[in-house]
Amino acid sequence: MPRFHFNVYDGETSIDEAGTELPDLVFARREAIRYSGELLEDAGRREGLGPEWRMEVTDESGLILFALHFVVIEAPAISKKPEE
Length: 84
Prior knowledge:
By secondary structure, the protein is an alpha+beta fold. The chain has one domain. Helix content is 30%, strand content 31%. It has helices spanning 25-45, 76-79; strands spanning 3-9, 13-14, 20-21, 52-58, 64-71. Strands 1, 2, 3, 4 and 5 form a 5-stranded antiparallel beta sheet that branches. A hairpin with a 5-residue loop joins strand 4 (52-58) and strand 5. The longest helix is centred in the middle third of the chain and has 21 residues, at 25-45. The model has no long low-confidence stretch (mean pLDDT 87).
């Protein structure tokens, strides 16, 4: 059974050294979405997210198979400073 690694980059790098054995890429995508949701939920309870969060899923050789990106973009109305 292939081993997939779920590496997270959110201002800090968290490399999944052990990986997880899953039947195929379809199961790896499902696990990546599930696990990302869990991590994002936890981050939302703490201080919040930085401007970018991503997970790269690799095979045993380190080849990136796919990535999930979560980007926080402030609306122009929020990022404007009030006029003095």
